[in-house]
């Protein structure tokens, strides 16, 4: 029995956690994680403890979907109280660092008036010592630049915050990831190990390659009870779909949201992986449909629906490299995706606009990404151009058509795309929904609402198509699939502005003989 070749069951999911909150770039990268812990998560836990019933009621109110409410029943409030106490005790260094960042910004606002910044260094809070440089831009606006690689080596980056929960996909929507911490549950196998733990790669490789319970037990360092729990997640039969590889030509499959799998017989590329584990649903491609080996994962930007650790961790043992856009290096709003993923054990290739990455039989070129980040100076964002099996594919993600002439340069550099995938979330959430904890001075609601996480509307998408000259266009990355609810928290109806804009764009395409579609759940292109 101990030597039996076993595979991971199809429906196993992993929730990567930091201090029990769902892990995403802004809660893993240390500077931003400290800010979110101090100015969002701790106040949220305190607010819950004041009146748990209000949080539970708000969590179940469809009008407040995606709001910052903790969906934990009042009977478990003591566990939330313990979590808050543990954070205040064990993460004191992070909390002090966040306070120091706010104080440092205040110091600059009051004292950096265009004169020498040297006298300000001794006045900075000691927690920032060695971790920041002060600098003016050419308009005499002073900023702190965080030495991000150094911060990862400081006590602001605490890997002990990390753990994972393994469980089965139930089809029941999980709580919204940005607000509700995950408490222990009898249905869940908790592993108190960091995301980079090699045992996790071994575990998820067992989706495609048989292994033994003894090997996994050793690799993950499990006790008897944990090993028994894990045994229930293994099976003697692999669940990979028969048609997960192709024999000739090229294929693109839409797996939902912004996830596309581009394949030839020699290679596979996955964009913004966010993949369902529910192979019984029958209306989607799942982890079972992925090829055994993935050459490249392409990440377009750092939003929580595009860089999804719960899927990336499942791929780590069967993946060549993750291609990520280069950040601005040290800007408070713009954590390095490369550093964040390298520290989680991934092989990373960092690209700037027009950098090229080869893969067997093809090539990916990073292309510019415009807007969609509330006018914050966030540069870790890229669209991509993939060439494979004779086709040129533009992967536009949430990039906006705010200045369509940009896309003329893409065409000038790379030629005419055959297929363009465009995001059209044209009425996104306001600035404070995602970035509140990073803002060190208050912002008015009016100001925040004027700066939304918005991609292209119909007019902008049409302008992109005019510049690119592509002959096929597909709208994707709208977060409409119901299995994404815990991350997307969207509520669309046929009257929603975004859906109307998509219809308008599709009509525009039809009038010009451009093949176009609005992707939902799954689709396949074969040539
Ligand atoms: Fe986005
Ligand atoms: Fe998005």
What does this molecule look like?
This protein is α/β, with parallel strands linked by helices and 527 residues long. Helix content is 30%, strand content 20%. It contains 17 helices and 22 strands. It has helices at residues 25-28, 30-50, 52-59, 77-90, 92-111, 148-152, 198-205, 213-220, 224-231, 309-315, 337-342, 405-414, 431-435, 445-450, 458-468, 485-488, 497-511, and strands at residues 7-8, 12-18, 21-22, 132-136, 142-146, 162-168, 189-191, 234-235, 251-256, 259-263, 268-271, 294-298, 319-325, 348-351, 356-359, 362-367, 383-388, 391-395, 419-423, 472-476, 515-518, 523-526. It has a seven-stranded mixed sheet with strand order 14-13-12-11-10-9-22. A seven-stranded mixed sheet has the order 15-16-17-18-19-20-21, with helices on one face. A four-stranded antiparallel sheet has the order 3-2-6-7. A hairpin with a 2-residue loop joins strand 9 and strand 10 (259-263). Helix 2 (30-50) crosses helix 5 (92-111) and helix 15 (458-468) packs parallel to helix 17 (497-511). The two termini are 45 Å apart. The structure holds fe (ii) ion (FE2) (2 copies). One fe (ii) ion binds next to loops.
Can you give the helix content as a percent range?
A: 25-40%
Low-confidence stretches: none
Distance between the termini: 45 Å
Bound molecules: fe (ii) ion
Q: How much is the average pLDDT? A: 96
The portion of residues forming beta strands comes to 15-25%
**SS-based class:** alpha/beta
Which geometry do the CA atoms define? Answer: globular
Tell me the major beta sheet.
7 strands, mixed
The tally of strands reads 22
Gyration radius from CA atoms, angstroms:
23 Å
Strand order of the largest sheet: 14-13-12-11-10-9-22
How large is the count of helical segments?
17
């Amino acid at each position: 029995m101990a030597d039996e070749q076993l595979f991971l069951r199809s429906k196993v999911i992993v929730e990567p956690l930091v201090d029990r909150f769902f892990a995403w770039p802004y809660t893993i990268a240390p500077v931003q994680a400290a800010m979110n812990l101090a100015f969002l998560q701790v106040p949220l836990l305190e607010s819950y403890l004041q009146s748990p019933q209000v949080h539970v009621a708000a969590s179940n109110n469809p009008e407040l979907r995606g709001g910052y409410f903790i969906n934990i029943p009042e009977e478990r409030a003591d566990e939330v109280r313990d979590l808050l106490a543990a954070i205040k005790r064990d993460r004191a260094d992070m909390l002090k660092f966040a306070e120091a960042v706010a104080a440092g910004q205040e110091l600059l606002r009051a004292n950096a008036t265009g004169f020498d910044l040297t006298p300000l260094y001794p006045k900075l809070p000691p927690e920032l010592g060695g971790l920041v440089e002060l600098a003016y831009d050419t308009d005499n606006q002073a900023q702190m630049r965080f030495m991000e690689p150094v911060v990862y080596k400081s006590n602001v980056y605490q890997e002990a915050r990390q753990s994972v929960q393994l469980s089965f996909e139930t089809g029941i929507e999980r709580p919204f990831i940005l607000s509700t911490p995950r408490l222990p549950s009898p249905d869940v196998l908790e592993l108190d190990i960091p995301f980079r733990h090699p045992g996790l790669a071994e575990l998820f490789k067992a989706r495609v390659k048989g292994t033994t319970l003894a090997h996994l037990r050793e690799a993950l360092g499990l006790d008897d009870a944990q090993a028994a729990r894990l045994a229930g997640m293994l099976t003697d039969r692999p669940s990979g779909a028969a048609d997960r590889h192709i024999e000739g030509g090229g294929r693109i499959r839409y797996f939902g949201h912004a996830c596309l799998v581009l394949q030839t017989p020699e290679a596979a590329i996955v964009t913004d992986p966010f993949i369902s584990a529910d192979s019984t649903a029958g209306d989607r491609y799942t982890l079972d449909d992925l090829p055994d080996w993935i050459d490249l994962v392409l990440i377009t930007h750092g939003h929580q629906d595009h860089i999804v650790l719960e899927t990336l961790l499942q791929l780590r043992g069967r993946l060549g490299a993750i291609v990520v856009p280069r950040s601005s290096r040290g800007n408070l709003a713009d954590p390095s995706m490369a550093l964040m993923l390298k520290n989680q054990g991934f092989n990373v290739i960092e690209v700037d606009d027009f950098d090229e990455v080869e893969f067997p039989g093809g090539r990916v070129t990073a292309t510019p990404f415009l807007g969609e980040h509330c006018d914050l100076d966030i540069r870790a964002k890229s669209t991509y151009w993939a060439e494979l099996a004779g086709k040129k594919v533009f992967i536009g993600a949430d990039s906006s058509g705010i200045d369509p002439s940009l896309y003329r340069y893409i065409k000038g550099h790379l030629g005419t795309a055959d297929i363009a995938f465009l995001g059209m979330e044209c009425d996104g959430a306001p600035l404070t929904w995602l970035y509140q904890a990073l803002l060190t001075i208050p912002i008015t609601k009016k100001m925040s609402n004027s700066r939304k996480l918005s991609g292209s509307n119909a007019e902008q998408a049409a302008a992109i198509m005019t510049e690119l000259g592509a002959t096929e266009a597909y709208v994707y990355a709208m977060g409409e699939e119901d299995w994404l609810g815990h991350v997307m928290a969207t509520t669309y109806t046929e009257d929603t502005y975004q859906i109307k804009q998509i219809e308008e764009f599709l009509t525009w395409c039809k009038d010009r003989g451009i093949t176009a579609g609005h992707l939902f759940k799954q689709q396949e292109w074969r040539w």
